[in-house]
Amino acid sequence: MKTVTLYTTETCPYCRSAKSLLASKGISMKEINVQTQPAKREEMIKRSGRRTVPQIFIENTYIGGLDDLAKLDRQGGLLSMLA
Fold it and tell me: What homologous superfamily does CATH list for 4-81?
């Protein structure tokens, strides 16, 4: 299965929702907390072009934030992208 990477902070409710959605599908993820690892925030901005969290990637494919992840799941594309 492909690697799902989430850039998050500890206090972000959207980050918790994204992690919950992935966990409910049995999808493991690599979480990078940009609050505790400030250098990773710059990495996130370079990769996504955005400063807000969560920012979600499947391998090197940029998914976006929570709304984008939820939409991908509703359309049936999430699990197929991971196959």
Answer: Glutaredoxin (3.40.30.10)
